Amino acid sequence: MSERSDDTLLGKSAPSFCLPDAEGKQCCLSDLSGRWVVLYFYPRDNTPGCTLEARGFSDGVDEFAGLGAVIIGVSADTIDSHRKFAEKQNLRFRILSDADHTVLRSYGVWKDVPLISSIAGIERSTFLIDPVGNIAAIWRKVKVFGHVEEVKQRLRELSGRS
Asked: Known catalytic residues?
């Protein structure tokens, strides 16, 4: 899905967070200051769409790094699940566990599942955070195919790098 310009978080300071990664080490947004951050939220480890998206971002790590960006994935899965997923898929970026959904809620990606209001889940979304910590671009209800390339293109435009 294309970037939406009507999102209330766009242009504002990104909600701060500190979450554990697949190794149990804390990763804080403030530690990434001065770099572009591709922060993507995905529903579940080891599912077809999430695996495809993770592989796409992992394959693009070097190109994103060349554009001054770091990639961070977040879901509500456990640290152990993330560790197994990262190892199995040879992921080259950090994935963080938000088991209590605090960060998911602060970015507005923890949503009720349509038609089943008693169940909530993660709306696949990506946020591009600029080096000073503001949200520069947002993609909600992401369709996996072509998404990584779309994020790279937007990053090229915004960073002035090609």
From this structure: 50
